[in-house]
Amino acid sequence: MEKAILQPRFKYSQHFKDFWIKGNGKQLTDFSGAEVSFRDFEKFAPYFYHVDEIGDEVVKDVYLTKKFSEGSKEIEGYIRNGVSENDDVPESVKKLFSQTQHIPEWLDYNLLKSGAELCMRSNLDSLISLRDYCLIGGYDYAYLNKPLIVTEALKKGAVKRLSETLDFWINATRYNALEIHAKGYEFAIKTRLIHSYARLSIKKHYKEWDTENWGEPINSWDMMATYIGFSLVFLHSLKKLGNTFSVEEEKGLFHLWKYVGYLLGIPENLLPDDKKQATEYFYLWTSVQPSADKDSALLAHSLLNESLENPILKFEFQRKNLRYLHICCTWFLLDDDVCRRLHIPDVSNRKLFPNTKIIINKIYDNLINRNTRINRGNKAQLKVLEDYLRVTKNSNFH
């Protein structure tokens, strides 16, 4: 059957126009100096129906021929020991590791270091940005969420989902994390194969999947948008919270996520080099996404209520207060239309905490030297991850 030719089908929709004329999209174009248009739409549109075939073949050859735990152990061995042309392994495994063990000519280790330092230096603001702008803002795109819904991510629970995202993000953004065989490299390969496993499962078990409208499950264009969340949207959030960053750090952040995207099998021409390019790419992608639906609101509320379910904080009043602070940050970082679509509850004095944070960040920036901030931020982020891993390991979160 011939595939439909994709059009920017929501470009005249109110949600799309409002987002780019007065909402977060307008803020992103002002922030980046982007010149948005549909000139390159046809270059990007085919990726809505494009997937990581190499990853899919590895899953078929390794995970689907034995128990999942045995497949995982086999892949861990390849990650830690490497794979050469002469090894007696499936051809798909050779292809995957030939690509990921090849260092692209454009890779700059100094930029990776600068990107990692910005992530660490921004301390808990990094985690607020990931949660209250990048993750929850992503729920506004109904088609992007379909794989989460059909794989029953809501049943898994937000604590576990957040723990996994945090584990991946922190391990990918430390010093030397993305060197071959290192922890971030390992997380990238495993995440890539989890995506392939989920995609093949959806294709096999979910007969109602609407490829024409939703694209292929976990397609390359959606993957591009997700990783623009980790770079462009994340950077914009840090700025809104009063953080400053150098040109080198900004370049480094985009470079870091470009390389992570490369390891994950996202086509290189979908990986932006800077905020201007990222905004222009993001504009095109949003034109094929409808606004939030009821599943979007359920995902958003699951994330908001994570603070109440999570036993890291001992007392109920602490958990309620944390939820309130996250709601304040969500309203501050996302535009009002997005918050209303996701049914984010309105709360009193919602600007007080974010505005206080901005003042504290400016003072902190002037008083504490950069290296100290990097070290403190690294420790604080690792402590949060440790707490999450402890409760998801020892509690009945599944």
Automatic annotation (TrEMBL):
Transmembrane segments: none annotated. One of its GO terms (molecular function) is oxidoreductase activity. Residues 156-350 form the ER-bound oxygenase mpaB/mpaB'/Rubber oxygenase catalytic domain. InterPro entries: Lcp-like, MPAB/Lcp_cat_dom. It holds the Pfam family MPAB_Lcp_cat. It comes from the Bacteria. PANTHER family: ER-BOUND OXYGENASE MPAB_MPAB'_RUBBER OXYGENASE CATALYTIC DOMAIN-CONTAINING PROTEIN, SECRETED PROTEIN-RELATED. This is ER-bound oxygenase mpaB/mpaB'/Rubber oxygenase catalytic domain-containing protein. It comes from Chryseobacterium glaciei.
